[in-house]
Amino acid sequence: MTTPAMLWSGRVLSGLFALFLLTASIPPKLLRLPIAERTMAELGWPAGYAFMLGLIELGCLVLYLLPRTSVLGAVLTTGLLGGAMATQIRAENPLFSHILFSVYLGLFMWGGLWLRDARLRALFPLVGRAAGGTARADILGAERS
């Protein structure tokens, strides 16, 4: 069951995630701004990769924002965030401000989706299932509510 508070909380978290990507991450890469290329070079990426990464980010975000493909978009974005984290680790950047930033973004992204989608909550409940309950039964029940 999705309450209005859960739905709106999920929308806010998802919106903040999307807003960050649409203002701070994707545009500098797609517009080929010098700051994007400079940052990528500091992280050890060859010149010219920022634009391609911006396109991938935009594609993942579009999939995430469309209800029918939101889980696929979240899974693909998780892979992208994992690569960003690996890059930060390789560059020996600070843990809490740089390396774990991908985790923070992922928590907003998955948290927003979890709050909005009863089927996802059935697959990943915060509390244990009652004895004898199955994930399939939980999902089917969630679709009816």
Instruction: List the domain count as a whole number.
Output: 1
- Low-confidence runs (pLDDT<50, min 5 residues)? none
Order of helices and strands: HHHHHHHH
Report the radius of gyration as a whole number of Å: 18 Å
Q: Tell me the helix content.
A: over 70%
Number of helices: 8
Derived structural class: mainly alpha
Mean pLDDT across residues: 91
Cα end-to-end separation: 6 Å
Number of strands: 0
What is the global morphology?
elongated
Largest sheet: none
Percent of residues in beta strands = under 5%
Task: Outline the secondary-structure elements.
Elements: H1 4-30, H2 34-42, H3 49-65, H4 70-90, H5 95-99, H6 101-116, H7 118-123, H8 135-144
Helix pairs in contact: 1-3, 1-6, 3-4, 4-6
Q: What features would you highlight for this structure?
A:
single chain, mainly alpha, 8 helices
Give a structural overview.
- The protein has one domain.
- 77% of the residues lie in helices and 0% in strands.
- The chain contains eight helices and no strands.
- The protein starts with a helix and ends with a helix.
- The model has no long low-confidence stretch (mean pLDDT 91).
In short:
By secondary structure, the protein is mainly alpha-helical. Helices cover 77% and strands 0% of the residues. The chain has one domain (4-116).
